[in-house]
Design a protein that fits this description.
By secondary structure, this protein is an alpha/beta fold. About 40% of the residues lie in helices and about 20% in strands. It has helices at about 15-25, 35-45, 60-70, 90-100, 110-125, 160-170, 180-185, 195-210, and strands spanning about 5-10, 30-35, 50-55, 80-85, 100-105, 135, 140-145, 150, 155, 175-180, 215-220, 225. Helix 2 (about 35-45) runs parallel beside helix 3 (about 60-70) and helix 3 (about 60-70) packs parallel to helix 4.
Length: about 230
């Protein structure tokens, strides 16, 4: 059986070696490059199933690499996990809005990176899942065909926006979404987005979920995710 290909892009040799070692140990086929230009060429010719992408690269930086990958029909389907220096919240937001699927901050734990890679690959397999499928996660049951949510068997009275917000997040648990992405999914593109407009809906949803509201996690400076 062919191994899953992962492309690692980082200009630091020690980081490349560390990531390559851990990915190879986990059973992936790994290729490493040190520049943005090489990353774009390799992604098109080698066709990896995922790219681990450093943001700070010589020449074409990581954000530009992500943008080009996601706007090229040959590579747009390839998930991207960004590697970024801790505190670069603006870069994280931009990267996610460009289409990156997750991010890991430096310095990072190899175990955390491996878990994120596995989660993103698993989510990619589920992307085409039926939107009307029943979702059961933690003690929450969501029935999209009925617009119905139950926690521990008790039916909740959610607004349409609260329901769509919860459904959107729970379809991809662990995936971090910016406020813009949430509004685009819940209210449609072109809806005026402010931090306040999204946060108000999240506060209302958490309150109605009760103890289960803690599963809706705030990612500081970025947005929200539903705990895996």
């Amino acid at each position: 059986m062919a191994k899953t290909r992962v492309l690692v892009v980082d200009d630091e040799e020690t980081i490349r070696e560390l990531v390559e070692y851990n990915l190879s140990k986990a059973g992936y086929e790994v290729s490493c490059v040190g520049t943005g230009e090489a990353a774009l060429e390799k992604a098109r010719s080698w066709e990896p199933k995922l790219v681990v992408l450093d943001l700070m690269l010589p020449g074409v930086d990581g954000l530009d690499v992500c943008r080009i990958l996601k706007t090229d029909t040959r590579t747009a389907h390839i998930p991207v996990v960004m590697l970024t220096a801790k505190g670069d919240e603006a870069d994280i937001v931009v990267g996610l809005e460009l289409g990156a699927d997750d991010y890991v901050t430096k310095p990072f734990s190899p175990r955390v990176l491996m878990a994120r890679v596995k989660a993103v690959l698993r989510r990619g397999e589920m992307t085409g899942a039926d939107e009307d499928a029943v979702i059961r996660i933690h003690d929450i049951e969501i029935r999209p065909d009925r617009y119905e949510v139950r926690v521990d068997g008790k039916k909740l009275d959610l607004t349409r926006t609260e329901f769509r917000l919860l459904h959107f997040l729970t379809r991809r648990p662990g995936w971090v979404f910016t406020r813009n992405q949430i509004i685009d999914a819940v209210r449609g593109e072109g809806y005026p987005v402010t931090d306040r407009s999204v946060d108000v809906h999240v506060v209302g949803l958490r309150k109605k979920l009760g103890g289960a509201g803690s599963y809706v996690e705030t990612v500081r400076g970025v947005g929200y995710r539903f705990r895996e």
